[in-house]
Write a structure and sequence with these properties.
The chain is an alpha+beta fold. It contains ten helices and 21 strands.
Length: 340
Amino acid sequence: MSVDIDVVVVGGGPVGLASAIEARLAGLTVAIIEPRDSTIDKACGEGLMPGALPLLARLGVDPAGMPLRGVSYLSPHRRADHLFRTGAGRGVRRTALHDALLSRAEQLGVERLCSRVETFTQDSAGVTVNGLRAGWLFGADGLHSAVRRIAGLDDPRPAGTRRYGLRQHFAVAPWSDLIEVHWAEHAEVYVTPVAADTVGIAILGPQRTDFAATVRGIPALAERLDGATAASSLRGAGPFRQRALTPSAGRVLLVGDASGYVDAITGEGLRLGLDQARLAVAHVTGGAGYDRAWARSTRDFRRLTSGLVRAATGPLRGVIVPAASALPQVYGAVVERLAR
């Protein structure tokens, strides 16, 4: 059976758009299926690690934002700063990133179909979805991926501790060019400058975490935000911990959060998703097997982040910042490994 299109991407967020751009740059025909026809936002920290920027640049995308020189861990009585050795990252509003990627995808002729995927079928020659026959399907539809579920790739094992995200922006000039991570009693609070007059505050913690109460519980941060006007509505996301049995099944490849995600604690999700988009297209055009390449790409993230999440949700939580302060070389090595 002939195909209508080489690749159909389910999900029109940043990773879905990046996947479509990668495919077009490789000479493939592409369509995106996404039910939302407006700019897509998400509750996230919005800090692009240094390793994400070259991946965007190779797609021809350079979103506006604020330079990020490093990461600072803070507790009431300790702090640990690390400056990136491989160049600055960038704080970018998720909406600005989405619009930049969308503009590039449209420039390259990516077709967009406003629809929701309820089911699909596949055989040895292709995938049929929403009446469209494609050679390959990329599932880039996020944490709660319908593609992962329909393909039978949801991991039924208990996911362990599940945490959730909250995010809101405030109209205040950034006071630092570091990503600040404030370690509160039960949550981490990420402060990311995203414009000359705006900072994003993202909170990662257990379900029903109170945003305002958590910020008030960090006096130094509460003082910075005192009197500041909210520049966006409060958004939530999660649970973040999701697993897939494998990142692919036949001609269906899971990309980004759909392929499994440990936690948002290290800000690595977007860099990994961009890299997986590259790997998925390499697989389609005759490169190495996707599952093995995916495992190599995510290995450090899965190991380091899983360890940090275990510490953050267990009895060692209180020693994370003191240990990072006392062992700057170890702390810096972990940050650098994840930042690349």
